[in-house]
Amino acid sequence: MLVLLLSVFLMINLHELGHTAMSWVLGGHSAYYRLVEFGPHGLRCIGCNHYDVTGLGYWSRVLVPLGGVLATQLVFWVSLYLLARYRRLRRAYAWVWLGMFLLDAAVQTLQALLANIAAIRAETGVDLADVGWLICSRYGISVLVFKPALLFLTVIYLLYALRRVKDVLSL
Fold this sequence. Notes:
- The chain has one domain.
- Helices cover 66% and strands 10% of the residues.
- It has five helices and two strands, in the order αββαααα.
- The chain has helices at 2-25, 58-85, 94-114, 127-139, 143-169; strands spanning 32-39, 42-50.
- Strands 1-2 form a two-stranded antiparallel sheet.
- α3 runs antiparallel to α5.
- The chain is globular.
C-alpha cells in the first residue's frame, strides 16, 4: 500500500513538474504548480499547473501540456531500463511503480476523449484536450479524426510498453 501511495504522489508531482519545466525551457518563466489547490468552494484541483500562454508561441503551447505526460513516460522508461539492468531491483512492487507511470498516459488520453474539444476556445488545463484543440483548430483536423487517432496511438503505445514490462520482469 505504501508503494502505491508513494507512486501516485511521485507520479502527480513529476507530471506537474514536467509541465513547469517545459514551460520554463520554452520561455514561460512564470510557470509554477501546486500539488493541491483549494478554491472558494473547496478542493479546486490536485496537481494544478499555472503558466501564462500569452508569451508562448504555437508549438510551445502544444509542448507545455505534453510536458507532464512526457515526464512520467521518461520516468517509466528509465525505471524499466534500471529494472532490466539491475536484477536486484526487481520486486513485486515494480508492477505498481511502473503501472502508475503508464496509467498517466491512459488517464490523459481518457480525459481528452471525454472532453468536448470542439467547444474549447482557450487552454483548459486538460492536457491532451488542449493539444487536440490546438492541433485541430490550427490544421483544420476534425475532432472525429483526432480522437480515434489519439486512442489508437495510446493503445499501441501501452501495449508496447506493457510487453516491455513483461519481458523485463520475467527475465
